[in-house]
Design brief:
By secondary structure, the protein is mainly alpha-helical. Helices cover 83% and strands 0% of the residues. The longest helix has 33 residues, at 182-214.
Length: 286
Amino acid sequence: LVIVNVWIGVAANGINALLHFMLLDVWHLGLNGSALALMLSYVSMFVMTLVYIIISKTYTATWGGWSSQCLHNWGAFIRLSLPGMFMISLETWFFEIGTILAGVLGTRDLGAQSVLIQIDNLYLVIPSGMQIACAIHLGQCLGANKPARAQLSAWICLVFISYYQTYAYTKYVVSIWGSLCREVADLAADLMPEVGTYMAFASLTIVCKGVLSGAGRQAMACAVLLITYYVIALPISVCLVFLTDLGLEGYWIGMTIATILGLSVSLAIVYRTDWPRHADEVAVHT
C-alpha cells in the first residue's frame, strides 16, 4: 500500500500549493495564511487516507475486528514503541535547539539555519526511505526465522547508502535559493561544507537506526542518540556558538561530531549483533 500513500502525498502537495496561492496571493493573509494552508493540507492527507481505507476495506485481510486480544502484550509493544518515539524526538529536538540558538544570534543566522535545515531534509529523503524499508524488511526476515538473510540485508542497505555520500546541493543552489536575501544566502553557502559533512555521515546513521529498529533494538539506538547528542554534542555546540567566533558554524560542527560518534557506535552494534538470537526472540513474542 506504499504507492497509495505516495499518490495521496502528491494530491496533498497539490492542495497545499493551491491553498498557498489562494491564501497568500489572492487573500493576502500573510504568515497566518501559510500556516492555515499547511494545516489544511495535513487534514486533507488524513481525510484522503481514511476515505481510502473505508472504501477499499483493505484492513479486512489483516484485521478481524475488535476483540479482547487487543489488550494483550502491551508491555512488549510499549518497550519497543517508547524508545522508537524518542529516537525521532531526540533528533528533532536537537534541530529545534539549533533554531533557538540561531535566533539568539540574529535574523541573518536564523534565516540561514532555516535554509540549511530544508536542504538537510531534502537530502535525507532517500536515506529516510531506506531506513523504513530496512526496518520492515529486517523485521520480516527475523519473523520468518531467516537471521542470515537479515544480516545480509542490513549490510546491503548500509553499503548502498554509502554510495549516496555526495553533496547533492552546492553553494550555488543555496545562493539561488536565498537570492531574496543576499546576506542569508552568503552565510548559508559558507556553512555548506560543514552541513555537507554532517549530511554525509547522517545518511549512514539514519540507515543504521533502521537496522537497529528492525532488530528490535530501539532502546539501544535511543541511548546512543541521547549520549552523543545531548551529553557530548550539545555542550560543544553551545560553547562553540557563544564562546568563539564560529557562530552558527559551531552548531553544525557539534552536529557533525554527534553524528560521527553515533555512527561509529551504531556500526559497532550492528557488527556485533547476534542475528540468530534476535530471530529466536521474535519467535517467542509471536
